């Protein structure tokens, strides 16, 4: 008993928990991104009905990542997951130009949500592995990201398929959580 | 174990199908004929080329003979030779291999060959997995007329009274796809997902339409096609992990084929719907919770030695 409690005390303080909300239109690559973060196989992905949640250890944080389905029918449920969100990750299919307007509208609505006030937002310009993908700078311009003044934000080009750019994005997430907690 | 081995050996029969052989033969003779035609057209054919052509023809003939021999041996001779050897020695092929060779590569290779050429349930399960995996890896392509036709067929089977206004339309949402073009919804399940959806609607039309009507319920509803693709993933992972073995060993007398797998999907689609409706979930957001629950129920029933997962709907199949 005594020894056990000493050992427990010796164990470093538990990882700080961070709540991350993963949103975006359907077929943007949210689930693939989630599986990449958890180092899981990405070859058997199916469309998300409802939501998925996974916990990932990273840089002394325990990241609880909520991946919510992006289908139009499900979007009204997004608001049920806003509470206590530390960082919002918004995923865009950079090759789906036909839906840039729709994805921009959804993002603008999210940034207007009271419960997400001041929450840092990372935008993943996903699917950069596709030849037809728009560069992150073009997306940033199209979405008028430079007009965001009420929070820190970042846009990161990535490919959830090849994992390129994901680490950089997650480093920014951890950095912004640290800055917020201080 | 010994009994099992004898059983396998008795069941032994050629796996190599005749059609494949005939196709190969046709290919070979076609090649020979074109070689002959080439040399005939070219009147000033030089000596070397003629020699080469003759050599080619001889080579092709020998290969053809080889194939014929292989086919005759694998389909008839091997069977009778084994039967004769069994009568004489009183032991089956695997027993003969085990007593005749020291443990090591030779013995194992011979046993492997013997088992591979047995059209039995054990090797059948592995080849079913290969077929399923091939179909899963085939991605849906709008350039493929066959794929497009299947998609339209799915619509007609489920919504016989409603005309699809165009290929890309919001109407796809009525049968539970996410957006206005289903092509992005098959994801990691590829053509396996679409084939299962079509199979269910075609072979259990009444049941599929009943499930769709539940899925379109304003409160307890879910996305029919998307959930179907998720259930294809469930069937696939059960097959991959080997959990489906008892089911197929009990329900299929010969080796299991692709349609047996489609029937299993139909069972899951029909049973999941019943389970979902009976559970009265709060909203679609609880899908993964109930999916997991249903998955464990199925796994428990697959552990029963006498398991046979059959859809018991309203019509006879």
Topology at a glance:
The complex is a heterodimer of chains A (182) and B (317).
Chain A: H1 2-10, E1 16-23, H2 30-37, E2 51-58, E3 61-68, E4 87-93, H3 100-111, E5 121-126, H4 136-142, E6 153-157, H5 166-181
Parallel strand pairs in A: 1-3, 1-4, 4-5, 5-6
Antiparallel strand pairs in A: 2-3
Chain B: H1 2-10, H2 18-41, H3 47-89, H4 93-100, H5 105-116, H6 121-137, H7 145-158, H8 190-203, H9 205-215, H10 224-241, H11 245-251, H12 258-279, H13 287-302
What is the compact description of this entry?
Chain A has 182 residues and is of the alpha/beta class. Chain A is built from five helices and six strands, in the order H-E-H-E-E-E-H-E-H-E-H.
Output the structural class of chain B.
mainly alpha
Query: How far do the termini of chain A sit from each other?
Result: 36 Å
Ranges of chain A with pLDDT <50 over ≥5 residues?
none
| Helix-strand topology string of chain B | HHHHHHHHHHHHH
Number of strands of chain A: 6
Percent of sequence in beta strands of chain B: under 5%
Report the helical percentage of chain B.
Answer: 55-70%
Order of strands, widest sheet of chain A: 2-3-1-4-5-6
Calculate the mean pLDDT score of chain A and round it.
Answer: 93
Largest interface by Cβ-Cβ < 8 Å: A-B, 19 and 27 residues
Net shape of chain B: globular
Mean pLDDT of chain B: 83
Number of helices of chain A: 5
Order of helices and strands of chain A: HEHEEEHEHEH
């Amino acid at each position: 008993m005594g020894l056990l409690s000493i050992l427990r005390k010796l164990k470093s303080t538990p990882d700080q928990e961070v709540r991350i909300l993963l949103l975006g239109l359907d077929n943007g690559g949210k689930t693939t991104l989630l599986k990449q973060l958890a180092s899981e196989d990405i070859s058997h992905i199916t469309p998300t009905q409802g939501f998925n949640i996974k916990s990932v250890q990273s840089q002394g944080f325990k990241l609880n990542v909520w991946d919510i389905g992006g289908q139009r029918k499900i979007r009204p449920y997004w608001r049920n997951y806003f509470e206590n969100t530390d960082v919002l990750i918004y995923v865009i299919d950079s090759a789906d130009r036909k839906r840039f307007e729709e994805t921009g509208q959804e993002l603008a609505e999210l940034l207007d949500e009271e419960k997400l006030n001041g929450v840092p937002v990372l935008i993943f310009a996903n699917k950069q592995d596709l030849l037809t993908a728009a560069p992150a700078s073009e997306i940033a311009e199209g979405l008028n990201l430079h007009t965001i003044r009420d929070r820190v934000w970042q846009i990161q080009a990535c490919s959830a398929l090849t994992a390129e750019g994901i680490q950089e994005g997650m480093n920014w997430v951890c950095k912004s959580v640290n800055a917020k907690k201080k | 174990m010994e009994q099992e081995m004898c059983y396998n050996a008795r069941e032994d029969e050629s796996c190599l199908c005749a059609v494949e052989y005939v196709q190969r033969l046709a290919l070979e003779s076609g090649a020979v004929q074109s070689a002959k035609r080439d040399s005939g057209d070219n009147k000033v054919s030089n000596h070397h080329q003629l020699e080469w052509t003759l050599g080619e023809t001889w080579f092709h003939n020998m290969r053809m003979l080889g194939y014929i021999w292989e086919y005759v041996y694998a389909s008839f001779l091997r069977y009778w030779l084994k039967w004769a050897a069994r009568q004489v020695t009183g032991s089956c092929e695997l027993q003969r291999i085990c007593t005749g060779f020291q443990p090591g590569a030779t013995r194992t290779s011979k046993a492997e060959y013997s088992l591979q050429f047995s059209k039995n349930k054990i090797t059948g399960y592995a080849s079913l997995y290969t077929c399923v995996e091939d179909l899963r890896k085939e991605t849906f392509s709008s350039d493929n007329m066959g794929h497009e036709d299947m998609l339209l067929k799915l619509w007609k089977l489920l919504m016989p009274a409603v005309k699809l206004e165009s290929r890309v339309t919001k109407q796809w949402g009525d049968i539970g796809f996410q957006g206005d073009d289903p092509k992005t919804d098959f994801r990691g399940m590829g053509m396996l997902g679409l084939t299962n959806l079509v199979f269910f609607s075609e072979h259990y039309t009444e049941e599929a339409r009943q499930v769709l009507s539940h899925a379109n319920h304003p409160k307890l509803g879910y996305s029919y096609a998307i959930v179907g693709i998720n259930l294809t993933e469930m069937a696939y992972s059960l097959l991959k992990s080997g959990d489906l073995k008892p089911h197929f060993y009990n329900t299929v007398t010969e080796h299991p084929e692709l349609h047996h797998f489609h029937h299993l999907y139909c069972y899951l689609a029909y049973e999941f719907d019943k389970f979902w409706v009976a559970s009265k979930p709060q909203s679609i957001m609880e899908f993964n919770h109930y999916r997991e629950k249903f998955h464990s129920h199925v796994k428990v029933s697959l552990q029963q030695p006498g398991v046979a997962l059959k859809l018991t709907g309203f019509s006879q199949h």
